[in-house]
Amino acid sequence: xxxxxxxxxxxxxxxxxxxxxxxxxxxxxxxxxxxxxxxxxxxxxxxxxxxxxxxxxxxxxxxxxxxxxxxxxxxxxxxxxxxxxxxxxxxxxxxxxxxxxxxxxxxxxxxxxxxxxxxxxxxxxxxxxxxxxxxxxxxxxxxxxxxxxxxxxxxxxxxxxxxxxxxxxxxxxxxxxxxxxxxxxxxxxxxxxxxxxxxxxxxxxxxxxxxxxxxxxxxxxxxxxxxxxxxxxxxxxxxxxxxxxxxxxxxxxxxxxxxxxxxxxxxxxxxxxxxxxxxxxxxxxxxxxxxxxxxxxxxxxxxxxxxxxxxxxxxxxxxxxxxxxxxxxxxxxxxxxxxxxxxxxxxxxxxxxxxxxxxxxxxxxxxxxxxxxxxxxxxxxxxxxxxxxxxxxxxxxxxxxxxxxxxxxxxxxxxxxxxxxxxxxxxxxxxxxxxxxxxxxxxxxxxxxxxxxxxxxxxxxxxxxxxxxxxxxxxxxxxxxxxxxxxxxxxxxxxxxxxxxxxxxxxxxxxxxxxxxxxxxxxxxxxxxxxxxxxxxxxxxxxxxxxxxxxxxxxxxxxxxxxxxxxxxxxxxxxxxxxxxxxxxxxxxxxxxxxxxxxxxxxxxxxxxxxxxxxxxxxxxxxxxxxxxxxxxxxxxxxxxxxxxxxxxxxxxxxxxxxxxxxxxxxxxxxxxxxxxxxxxxxxxxxxxxxxxxxxxxxxxxxxxxxxxxxxxxxxxxxxxxxxxxxxxxxxxxxxxxxxxxxxxxxxxxxxxxxxxxxxxxxxxxxxxxxxxxxxxxxxxxxxxxxxxxxxxxxxxxxxxxxxxxxxxxxxxxxxxxxxxxxxxxxxxxxxxxxxxxxxxxxxxxxxxxxxxxxxxxxxxxxxxxxxxxxxxxxxxxxxxxxxxxxxxxxxxxxxxxxxxxxxxxxxxxxxxxxxxxxxxxxxxxxxxxxxxxxxxxxxxxxxxxxxxxxxxxxxxxxxxxxxxxxxxxxxxxxxxxxxxxxxxxxxxxxxxxxxxxxxxxxxxxxxxxxxxxxxxxxxxxxxxxxxxxxxxxxxxxxxxxxxxxxxxxxxxxxxxxxxxxxxxxxxxxxxxxxxxxxxxxxxxxxxxxxxxxxxxxxxxxxxxxxxxxxxxxxxxxxxxxxxxxxxxxxxxxxxxxxxxxxxxxxx
Length: 1148
Fold this sequence. Notes:
By secondary structure, this protein is an alpha+beta fold. It folds into nine domains: about 15-95, Alpha-Beta Plaits, CATH 3.30.70.100; about 110-185, Alpha-Beta Plaits, CATH 3.30.70.100; about 195-270, Alpha-Beta Plaits, CATH 3.30.70.100; about 280-325 and about 330-355, Alpha-Beta Plaits (2-Layer Sandwich), CATH 3.30.70; about 360-505, no CATH class; about 550-630, Calcium-transporting ATPase, cytoplasmic transduction domain A; about 645-735 and about 1035-1115, no CATH class; about 735-760 and about 920-1035, Rossmann fold; and more. The strands form eleven sheets. A seven-stranded mixed β-sheet has the order 28-42-41-40-29-38-39, with helices on both faces. The two termini are about 20 Å apart.
């Protein structure tokens, strides 16, 4: 494909609205009456076409709604209503959501709070809709997300306008039990005090512990210093400090003022994404031992004295404390130790919440309650059923129902049935009455309303029949249906019990994830021994270390802090993320990443919390603990995915909201129609003529009850969330994390996958293959050493794979290992994503500051650095490329495939480095699998074109689908262009430079080994970074889940469509009808069957052709050339019918 300028092809504004600023668009919903067919809705939509200020108009014939997105400055909501009425329909304004104003005021001016509430009593989509409607017109509510499966509501609101308690009260007013779980306000610290650098300072002259105390005392309370660790054995101090407040040189001067010789060895500046360290976290704890309000004040003052505490609020009544702190400054254990040192006891409330959520996920409470309700109701229902039906029909000698009792018209059988029915109707049925009343009070009927209508109608009819028999001669035995009341409630209780058991199984994967972390961890009391070992090597004996350094201590996992050294013995679960410092072992990571084979770990290897150590002994340094661990993030992602709703579910919930009123109407219509027909027809169905049926009224009542009880919206409401919950759980077990139902639904429509190159198609561990210093810098050994020192120090703060590789290679050239630090200081570090970095470097034993630029040729020229054509030509030739005379780029040649990075020092060209990368083993197989699924593949990279083409040839991507030398903004533009061309685009990347494109794509897919920014921007996260076959697997899983959702919805709708005619008595002329008890059993079975259908997703496995072995079996060698056989789908009109496609590849 020919090169072109991406910047000139950015998406153009929509023609509608005359290109008005999209921030001015309002969304107006109008209720429209009088529409009867598709032409009505089409006429309304046509009315708004071409109207100035209208972006879109969508009309639903089913819901009688019109949603118009329009520029509120050009067209107001009242005008929208008038335009609809002008077409001959009755229109009523439902709501208008005005656009949010741009937030130009400070962030604190509009603080948003996320409140999570546990909601008990929801049974179907109508319940979730009822909860959401409670917040529809409430000022200060930003969003409401209610999960039927999780029994939770997540409300984002303005804390100044709506309190957490108001949210709880609102949900309870809708007829549900609500309990506050958490309410968290996000804040950004305004200062940069937590942007700490780590400086290592060599200290001479220390002889004892008093010396180390003197150094620490001299740095105590100094502004800008976060922590100080002094090692007497190493004669060094490791200090965390804010470089904007105090520099490493100033710290060295303070130490010298204490009487010691000090020199700066190295300074590690905060990384490019250190801004995230300024975020606070909320810690909720329970505090025991407080006597009065004085204790509260004492604890708050104590906490506020700690460095890193933003705020502390302790409540004596609830014995709870809410502490806002900076995790980059202090850890949770420090807070707990401070409280306990003051004479109080503190416990984490997160444990209580986790246990409560595990119980909620397993539906333990609901299963226990509904099992008890079923057994209780069955105890009374069976005798009623025997007395009313079985004994009179089959055991007539035992029939005592016709025995009269004292009063004429009162029969023993009816009296016993009444007494047995009361505990069921008003004991077990009390929860149905309470829920139905609360929902009706707010005009939002639920399934419980249908249950109460059916059972109450049967109970009242039976009681009235008994009264009429007593009051009116000849006092014959009345026709009662007490068995209908008791058996209905029994069947419904059985259904709810089985349904909740099945629901509990849907969350097995999430429950297992939440239970992976061990409760306790073993750490060293003083972790400095490992710092000493790292710096001294293994030559030092254990006797040279203080005995306290090897003392062990057990602590709760939630109290681990960054920097702790954790001891892992064979078989131990790993409590947090970290880096191995000692020992070798194999670790089973299958429960987190889905990787089947144990992974070997040695010093320097990364560990993931929740995985299991093998047979070896390991020590590791904690790098992420608590909520920041990868396991916690996985659990959070899975929870969010299972809480969010897919667009297809929203429609089902809307339908469920109208379901109950429709069913009640249908039941009344059934009753009225059959009452009329039974009196009008000369030859009505036989059941109306039978004496055993109780007469026309009894038959019509039973038909009405059957209709009301049979039609259940629960199955419709459970069809989507159960499938999403099971599917996302299975995905998590296979290392595929999906961030919600909407991402799942979009993933099923993907037509094109765009890959980043570095770190995605390639391993991302680049190595320096060649290097060259200019004549100025290779004139002596000293200058060569200085060149590597400057280059290595400059790349120390870089997070890009190329930067890390250069830094490690520079250390090797200086005779250092990768864990060592190059002596010197760094300042004024800046990175231009996709271009290069700039830094001010002061090497050790040198007072001169050098300005270093490292990047591509364009980056050097942008910084006014002269790069001669012959110098670029030499570099490109060394990398295997032939320069293009017009653009200075390199074209493909036999040796292409390396990346060239140029170096400039103090504004002058100083040399270049050529780096090579390794293509991932399964990259070409992933491309083949995607093509077999009918998905197009492209590659976009910021690297040079020769390198990009070499990788594309190796993995089988067509040259026309390769874009090279592309900046992050241009990647984003390119994705936008592909979307405009009609493709549903999935972008796969792992770096900060990929995040704009990931956010712009229809589906963003990030590798878990990538940066936090990329993972945050993505919709799907792949935990196994080396497994590109997980990309087609994730798309296959999404399609499998949505096939199951469609099947569930079809089953739920078909169940009602097929069964309803039987319940309504349509087949009465043929002697077929549905008894109310059978209708109740069928209703219970519908929900259980839908949940069981979703549980079948647990058996999902990727197809055999989506593995390397499976694909290899489909590859043949013909005439020495490699052929790729890629299946295409059949049957769709207009598609190519060829079964196989030949794709030639070239080896690098």
